[in-house]
TrEMBL record:
Stretches assigned to the AD domain: 112-212
Cited InterPro entries: AD (IPR047574), Lsm12-like (IPR039683), LSM12_ABD (IPR019181)
Region annotation Disordered: where it falls in the sequence: 1-24
Official protein name in the record: AD domain-containing protein
Superkingdom of source: Eukaryota
Membrane-spanning segments: none
PROSITE patterns: AD (PS52001)
Amino acid sequence: MSDVAKRNSGRVATPKQTGSPLPGEVMETAMKAVGGRVRLTNTLNTTFEGTLYTVDPTLRLIALNTRSPPPNPSTNPASVPGDYHIIPIASIRDFHVLSLGEKDYLSQTAPTKIDTRLLQNRLEKRVEQLREEKQHKGQGVSEDAQRLYDRLRQVNIPVRWHAGRDGPQMIVHDAVMVSAPFEPANCVAPADKQAVLQLVKRVIEGERKKLGLSAASGGVRKGG
């Protein structure tokens, strides 16, 4: 036996020692496993298992969905709520790919496109609603007067507020002017609108009774 053989015969083979994977190795492996099931352990010895949603090579982060996959394989993953964790790659101590994902996983889970025109239309509609609501709020009127005004609108009586010389007034049917305290006796109209005037008086009298408003209970708000 040669001297080299004698020396080697006295040695016992030991496994190669490996430490934590390098961040670059984790990145490379994770990029190929998007959509698959993975298990990882961070430097705090916390273990996560779930579906690898995405990898950001710029920020060096991964997004992991630890929610169990839907029981029906045909279910679109984007329609199922998830439990997502954002994990820095530098904090990963162990990383194992349990199974690879579907080839079309990225297209299945892609965020839905936002219709900006629809959002703009909704915004404009809401602004118009707020503007209209403001126009129908009497400035400086009592709560009872506002209740009467709102009630007239509810029964489809055309009415709007008008800033009169002696205080807020209701203009009904674009013909009858109603001043505080907004009772039938406070209704006036031009000579050629007397039929409308009588109709408005009856409506106001009836709605005041339904609201339980006593005489002179509606008017201009006193104080600040």
